[in-house]
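Lab meeting prep.
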Amino acid sequence: MNVFVSEYLCSGACELSQEDASLLTEGTAMLDAVVTDLLSIPDCTVTVCIRESLSFVSDVFLQAEHLQRLQILRVTNSEEEQALFDRACQTADVAWIIAPEFDGLLVSRTERALQLGARVVGPDLKSIQLTADKWKLFEFLSERDLPTIPTVLMQDELTALEASFPCLIKHRFGAGGLGWELLSKAENWLKRRPDFGDQSSDYIVQPFLSGSSLSTVVLADVGRRELFPPGEQRVSWESGFAYQGGVIPAKLELDVVDSIHKLISRVCEQLPGLVGYVGFDILLPDADPMKPLIVEVNPRLTTSYVGYRQLTLDNLAERIVNGSSCYSALKWELEREIEFQPDGSLFLNQSRSLEEKKQ
């Protein structure tokens, strides 16, 4: 089996701005983890496109390249990446597309791979298009009485009256928290409103709710879903939104975990096209932690993969490319605590679980 792994920011498909630096770091960590796991599958070969300026030469990869199990296609410009992307999709058995939602990138690259005849792992196009648009996702969830954060579309001055303050402004198609802005009162919003101009309908406004930020994952296949242990998201608002990694598993009561899993299962039942590795961002409101809210649905690989792969002896990548239905249930080492940074670096702490066992 040959797997083509395309991580957009690492691939050389675009010029990188200063704002892309954090996303590139996350993308590199995910790509490294995915390729490593794929190479541990017997008889699996991997193809990747890598921008020429990016270092991607671990000992594992050098050895795999020498054994012709890893083909690294060095890319100098976006036109070259497009040609190599097309060729790889046509020759690979499986295409694994990792891309942010903004500018329709995840949709367009997935659609292109499908047009070229590739078997693409992950949600179907309809599900990607819906979940990548935060406004459309809000409408979908609300129509089905699935609890989520109240949301209004930024269209005119009435938005300030409809919104609660403090509030968050988010791009409808944003990723990684880019473009999030926290405003404390309506006057701040009215001052900022003219800056958005004709693009105001590309943004949503949500109340800033106090609570615990969590994330989890569903590994879905036909007729089967595996729900991962929820993890804690670490976020700083000191100088705007800053994602600071997380801890897996989060310290939660069993009934809270159960309420999160029940909510996510309801979403998946309403949207059966959510196949493969799907990330969910969850808020546990301080006002009622037993009533979790859906914040976002990420129809792609998320940074949490680097943590979850350390919390199990099973190969997550193998289940993603082959489909999880032919495997036994994942076995989690919940006595471990995995702390991961946005750059993919990890810290393993077992002291908490050992102390708990002594009690």
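Slide two material, second protein:
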Amino acid sequence: MKWERLLSRGRFGDKPGFIPTQVVRSEFEVDYDRIIFSAPFRNLQDKTQVFPLPEQAFVHTRLTHSLEVSSVGRSLGKAAGEFLLGKYPQLSTNGITAFEIGAIVAAAALTHDIGNPPFGHAGEEAISDFFKFHPAGKCWEPHVRTEQLADLHNFEGNAQGFRMLVSKQFGLKLTYATLAAFTKYPRPSMIAQRDIARRSQKKFGFFINQLADFEQMGAVLGMEKSSPECWYRHPLAFLVEAADDICYSIIDLEDGCTMGLVSFEDTVKLLAPILKDKFDPKKLKEPRTVAQNLGALRALAIGELIKECVDVFAQYEESMCKGNFDKALTDIIPSAKALKAITDLSVQKIYRSQVVLEKEAAGFQVIEGLLEVFSKALYHQFYDPAQFSGQDKSILRLLPEDFPLKGWGAEVNPYPLLRALVDFISGMTDKYALNLYRRVKGISFPGS
């Protein structure tokens, strides 16, 4: 793969021969601005990162997490861009700058969680389990193709994000380079055999009805394949992944300390190996508060991890372009062992804490309940009309105005209909999903 093509400024919908004419902003800065002002991004404000929002202390939502990942991504991208421009001076003649490469990574990182449903990873599992196990989900199986069923059985936030970013519904029309940097898992859900040695095949990055979109993007950027069904990652996707890994490792730990689940002393012990000779315990004494000390340690740790990731990126950049390198940067940097220790403790004391597990359990009930009532109503209307009731009619009136309610029937494949239903449910905020669930189940009434 060649950087000249990988950094293309083209977009979906461009006419042949179109040349971007942005003067004040680069095309990749346009991407960033479009994302910031989009409805799906704003909805991240009320989507859980790890903890339900407490009354007294600040913890991260998906929105604040995404903004911070984007900030780290910009730093990673700019530093990597300076390396690339030094190594490949011809990029400068094409107008590519380190700032533009930073903008690609920043924009892609800004969207990295945009496809996540309410209630975090519990929401993903709840959608998958509904179509795998619930009678109201399993009833669709005879009507869809095998590869479509694989999508429904394995809801993936990354694939949902790609779907949203290329959808005409939201009008984002991002550059191919930003979309490719966003895609950590460049494969569909159903493949003949997964190569467990390749990080990029751990999950999947697009649903089967976005295959043509992905193929078009890959052709423009010159992305090559590792198999007939799987592509090599765009090299900048490694930086987007690293930005997310850095932020959730360090900042989930900070939130855990803020919530009292991890002691300040344990937090310091975990961060000190990353800081190395920059760690000075004398500076942690009064009059500085615990919050101030946490902020200083976090900033120093993130700065060191950025430097280490850029160094590893520079070391393996050629292998990335050849498709030979396929690991997470944070797994092989000097601080990898320290990050693993943070992850191990976070699993034990944060992700399995009572407040988090209660949130996840509630999320399963809410997502399953919403899918059940809407799925039943749709199935009854189009695929079992004898069962279509007045209650079903009332439920379907709650769907968005632009929901595709025409053209379905027993002889029509309902996969696009089900994708639209999942779009509706997964796009909800936590609060909206909970309130709607209460109302459709008769637990509360509008205005109560």
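Talking points for slide two:
The chain has three domains: 3-116+155-234, 118-154+362-448, 236-354.
The chain has a mean pLDDT of 90.
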